[in-house]
Amino acid sequence: MLNSLSGRFLILTTIFVMLAEVMIFVPSVARFREDYLISRLERAQIASLALLADDMLTEELESELLKNAGVFNVALRRDEVSELMLSSPMPKEISQSFDLRGATAMPLIRDAMMRLLDPEPRVIRVIGNPSLDAGQQIEVTMDTAGLRRAMIDYGLNILVLSAVISVITAILLFGAVRILLVKPIKGVIGHMMSYSAAPEDARQIIEPSAGVRELREAEVALHDLQTQLTQALKQKDRLAQLGGAVARVSHDLRNILTAAQLFTDRIEMSEDPTVKRMAPKLVNSITRAVSLCENTLAFGRAEEPAPTLTLFNLSNLACEVIDAERLAVGDAELSISEDIPTSMMVRADPEQLYRALGNLIRNARQAIVASGKPGEIGVRATAMDEDWIITVTDTGPGLPPKAKEHLFQAFQGGVRKGGSGLGLAIVHELIRGHGGELTLERSDETGTVFAIRLPMGKIT
C-alpha cells in the first residue's frame, strides 16, 4: 500500500498537515504564555484592590490572596507613586524581567521557546499595564514552574488535536484520491492491457470518459494513439497480403513479359517507319516491366532496393516518361511538356527516377482527364548549389482533402475513386532512398505542384 500512489499521498498529507500544525504551534504557545502572564497580572491587581479596600488584612489573608494570584509580590504604580501592595518571601532571586507593554511577536515567541526548553524553575519579574486603567503600571514576581507545566499541557493538547486533524484530513484525501485519480488511472491501465492483447480490434480502443481534465487529456491522447496504431496494423496486414499476392503474380507476369520481349525483338526488324520508331520504346517499357517484376514491385514482398546511383541525362529520361504518357492521353485535350536543360546530368538511379516521374505525371494526367476539362502538365528541373530540384506542375482540379490529409500513405491517400494511393507512397519511398525529399508545394483549384529534391553529393 505504501508503494501505491494513494498510500504515498496519505503519508505526504499527514506529514504536511503536521508541519503546518507545528508552524501554528510555536506562535500559539507564545500567545498562551502571554495570556498566562497577563492573567497573573490581572489576579494580582484584584488582590491589590482588595488590600486597598481594607488595609487591615491579616498576614494569612494576604498569603491566601498571593497564592490565589500565583505570585510572590505585587507592586502597583498609582498617581506616579509605586507601592508594594502584597509581598511574601521569595524562594530565590529574580533571574529575569519581562515587560509585556508593547511586546512584539518575535520576542514573545523567543521567550516562550526558551521557557519551554528550560526545565529549571526560576523566579521572574513581569511588568504590565493594569486593567481598566487602574494605575500606570503593575509588577509581579512569580515562579516559572507552573507556567512551564501549563505551556507543556497546552502544547500536548495542540499536538494531539493536530494529529487527529491530520489523520482525518489524510483519510478524506486518501478516499478522494482513490476515487478521483487512482480509480480512473487503473481504468486507463486496464484499457491499455486489453488493447495490448488485441491491438487490431478497434473495440479495445479507449473512449475518453474521465471527469478530471488532465486525465481526460491523457485518455484523448491514448485514444488517438491507439486509433493510429490500429489503422497502421491494418495497413501493414493489407501490405503483407498484397506482398503474397504480388510475389505470385510477379513470377507469372515476368514469364509473360519475357515472351513479349522476344516478340518485340522480331518487331524491331520491321521496315515500317512507324514500327521502327515505336519499337525501341516498346522494348524499353517491357524491359522495365521485367525488372520491376524481378524486384517484386513496390510495397510487395519487400521494401524498395537501394538505388544504384549513376550519372545520366535527365532531359532524355523525362522525354521517355512523357512520350509513354502521351500515348495514354487519347482524345483528351491535354498537353505534356518539359523544360529541362538538354545538358543537365543528374546522379540517381535512372530506373527508380523513371518510376517516380512516371507516377507523378500519371496521377496528374488521370486527374485532368477525370475532370473533363483541358489541362497542361509541365516538368521542369534546375540545379541549385547542393541539390537538383525537379517540379511536376499540372492545371488539374487539385488534391482532395483526404489525399492531403494522408499524403504519401499507402491505401489512404487515393486521389481518384477506386485508386489505392500507392503512387505517391511509391514516389515518396523512392526519393527518400536517394536521400532526397518529395514535397507538395501547392494544391488548389488552379492545379498542383510537386517538387523532388535530389542531393548532389559527390559527383564523380
From TrEMBL:
Pfam families: HATPase_c (PF02518), HisKA (PF00512). Residues 248-458 form the Histidine kinase domain. This is histidine kinase. CDD domains: HATPase (cd00075), HisKA (cd00082). Its EC number is 2.7.13.3. PROSITE patterns: HIS_KIN (PS50109). It comes from Pelagimonas phthalicica. One of its GO terms (molecular function) is phosphorelay sensor kinase activity. The chain crosses the membrane at residues 6-30, 158-181. Keywords: ATP-binding, Coiled coil, Kinase, Membrane, Nucleotide-binding, Phosphoprotein, Transferase, Transmembrane, Transmembrane helix, Two-component regulatory system. It catalyses: ATP + protein L-histidine = ADP + protein N-phospho-L-histidine. Residues 215-242 form a coiled coil.
